[in-house]
Amino acid sequence: MIDFVSDNAGMIGLLFFFSFFVAASVWTFRPGAKGQYKKHAHIPLEEN
User: Per residue in 1-48, pLDDT tens?
Assistant: First the structure.
């Protein structure tokens, strides 16, 4: 098992980070997120 991982570490890392990138992109651009992002965009402009 460890031989397989060490021999294919580059491909495993590539697939892991590509999967993470796709998941982060899907989470960011999901259909219901636009309203939440608009609300959060005004946080720095609010006065306490």
Answer: 999 989 999 999 999 999 999 999 999 999 888 888 898 999 998 886
The model's pTM is 0.65
Q: Tell me what percent of the chain is helix, strand and coil, each rounded to the nearest 5.
A: 85, 0, 15
The DSSP 8-state label assigned to residue 30 in this structure reads -
d(CA 13, CA 19): 10
6/38 Cα distance (integer angstroms): 45
Distance in angstroms (rounded) separating the CA atoms of residues 23 and 28? 9
Instruction: Yes or no: say if 36 and 27 are a contact pair by the CB < 8 Å rule.
Output: no
